[in-house]
């Protein structure tokens, strides 16, 4: 029972791969990564800086022609497992490569280049 007889509206959870929560146009959403694609994670609380890092990383991967599995991790217990003390952080193939800073698209591309060359 809720206050004053008003019930909370229940909305079904949205399962989208996009960080915008499904509000962007379908043409801007990335296609799902193929099986075995390198995993790139953005660790953070879901703030504006985290979303910006996610967008820059996705744009850098697209510019390099990489097919990566991009994930947003907002669970602080999971973030703590990486030893990250400040967010946003970028994890490539389970290695923390950046923490506490929003990378530009160019900086993210430099960190993703080893994936392009198959070294990671």
UniProtKB/TrEMBL annotation:
Gene3D superfamilies xref list: Glutaredoxin
Superkingdom in the source lineage: Bacteria
Pfam family membership, one: Thioredoxin_3
Residues covered by the Thioredoxin-like fold domain: 40-113
Protein name, as recorded: Thioredoxin family protein
Organism this protein belongs to: Candidatus Ruthenibacterium merdavium
